[in-house]
């Protein structure tokens, strides 16, 4: 999106949860508007009802959205319900959603109860219900920057993250889901190609067609009010209101992740083969004259991954880690360098389950192509029944774990018994996440060491400039 397209703070629709049945609580009396979808895919308001506070649930029955107040049936009509608080709630919760799933398919997958301000929309999508939170962008960011890390993080880190979260969201473009052609929850924006010898996939992040962004790691973590109560979070938003990163008149697609492992990665190693000047590989430490390593070279990549070179994100500083990592993130203790072991049968089963391809017993994992940070872009999986080159980084991480590997920057060592028979594979890796853009743990250490938010952004997004939109 171009910087001159936004003159004032927009309102956004956040898809929080999709389920067969959604249970929620209204903390304030509310107006309920009932909408019906026409053949032209337009929503028409058919009724407006005053509802008391209390426990509610919704599910699809007989092609319509049913609403229950406790066990009492209130409505069995309409395709979308809009709940608006009768009185302004300020920063007090208007509604809570029960059993919200977070970290979907990652190793921190779990459910939470979450509280929200703004409007609650319940949208029917085939046989499921989607809970959508509509609210001003800056209110959304209050939760995002505290959900992506701890609400007690350093002020300069929070300022930097407010700017990149705002930039990323606006760069995607808002309101696509309001177009008449929007029909289903998601447009599976899976890109790539298949040949006899290769299976290459990458996943774009503009897949939602009934809301602007989702509330989980696919887009940005948005976990409600309970994450956003500290003074420094509010100050970070107040002092950066309307500010974004831009490059050549476009708002930057400012990606981020947990830990680079020493070097960040080029955009094109993870997504489309369209380089972005501000998403280039950088060393995650202060400027140095040391000769750059070519980690696309297998020998140099192995030496790098098996070592522990200095970097902002190479830290065991628990005080800083507790500021930047939420409770469930702190369950991941080894993020700079990590190790995973599989026996042959276990890995063969995982690859078959996750890929849907029967390779037979896995015989070898062979690096084919690495990016600038040593992350694998292509990996050859050799099995008894077939062999296939897999890419890009997220597909590799998906195929080799029941959740996702921490990153695709890893080396493989085969394990053999005394007779030389293959018994397993040992994966030693670096970093946590795709590695493109801002390294959250590295940025936290920069903030701790006295770097200002502008310096942090300049470090991770070279060639990007800071602009005020509103």
Please tell me about this protein's structure.
43% of the residues are buried. Strand 23 and strand 24 form a beta hairpin. 19% of the residues lie in helices and 34% in strands. The chain has 9 helices and 26 strands. The longest helix has 18 residues, at 155-172. The chain has a domain at 3-240. The chain is of the alpha+beta class.
Q: What share of the residues does DSSP label as strand, in percent?
A: 25-35%
Shape: globular
Strand order of the largest sheet: 4-3-8-11-12-1-15
Query: What is the helix content?
Result: 10-25%
Structural class: alpha+beta
Query: Mind summarizing the main beta sheet?
Result: 7 strands, mixed
Q: Report low-confidence residues grouped into runs of 5 or more.
A: 180-187
The average pLDDT score comes to 91
Radius of gyration: 23 Å
Report how far the terminal alpha carbons are from each other: 15 Å
Tell me how many strands there are.
26
Q: What is the helix tally?
A: 9
